[in-house]
Amino acid sequence: MGGAVSAGEDNDELIDNLKEAQYIRTELVEQAFRAIDRADYYLDDFKDNAYKDLAWKHGNFHLSAPCIYSEVMEALDLQPGLSFLNLGSGTGYLSSMVGLILGPFGVNHGVELHSDVIEYAKQKLDFFIRTSDSFDKFEFCEPSFVTGNCLEISPDSTQYDRVYCGAGVQKEHEDYMKSLLKVGGILVMPLEEKLTKITRTGPVAWETKKILAVSFAPLIQPIHADSGKSRLVHLHLETGFLC
């Protein structure tokens, strides 16, 4: 998925192209995209493709196309101090951009199935904090990542102001995804091949908007141990992760 805008020579030129094509429409989102170099989240052998509007996948590592992340960031309508949950948090690229907007009083959690991807995300986060010139220009809500299946979040976990799922969701899991959201919150996910924005307007009231057609790998179903019990992921705003 991708190819909607021209490739850039560097990160800033890529962002210029996304703005010109109206994928990036607000100043907060533009600032976050410019502050984090997309190439930093690629493996070295693949950095030549970092500024193309294309998805990238190598083993368990994956980045969506820039045009998709732009639509996601805009649809989330992020504001300082909100709580954010990233399901399938991957390399941490999106979570780090979100953290630049949430600021010091926000909450920034990610759930990722693959432990090697979690380690990679932590390395990239550390590199950003240590080396980026832009880090000092923002009050950063540092993301926290936990290994687990995003379909196994404990029912007693907290609800969030903003939720994004980075894998294809089928209709059977729509209500589960909605249950993670506070009243007034926004959920963005690929639902039945459409990037979809769902706003929780009341305890049992929802507004749904289809943004654009997308193609995402589907959510991986949980694999239960011999005991038949799943390994629940416990998420709490006050204390962070309890696994």
From TrEMBL:
Pfam families according to UniProt: PCMT
Domain of life: Eukaryota
Cellular compartments per GO CC: cytoplasm
Gene3D superfamilies: Vaccinia Virus protein VP39
Cell compartment(s), UniProt: Cytoplasm
Main localization category: cytoplasm
GO molecular function, one term: protein-L-isoaspartate (D-aspartate) O-methyltransferase activity
Keyword Cytoplasm: yes
Alphabetical UniProt keywords: Cytoplasm
InterPro entries: PCMT, SAM-dependent_MTases_sf
SUPFAM superfamilies: S-adenosyl-L-methionine-dependent methyltransferases
PANTHER family: PROTEIN-L-ISOASPARTATE O-METHYLTRANSFERASE (PTHR11579), PROTEIN-L-ISOASPARTATE O-METHYLTRANSFERASE DOMAIN-CONTAINING PROTEIN 2 (PTHR11579:SF2)
UniProt record similarity statement: Belongs to the methyltransferase superfamily. L-isoaspartyl/D-aspartyl protein methyltransferase family.
Name of the protein described by the UniProt record: Protein-L-isoaspartate (D-aspartate) O-methyltransferase domain containing 2
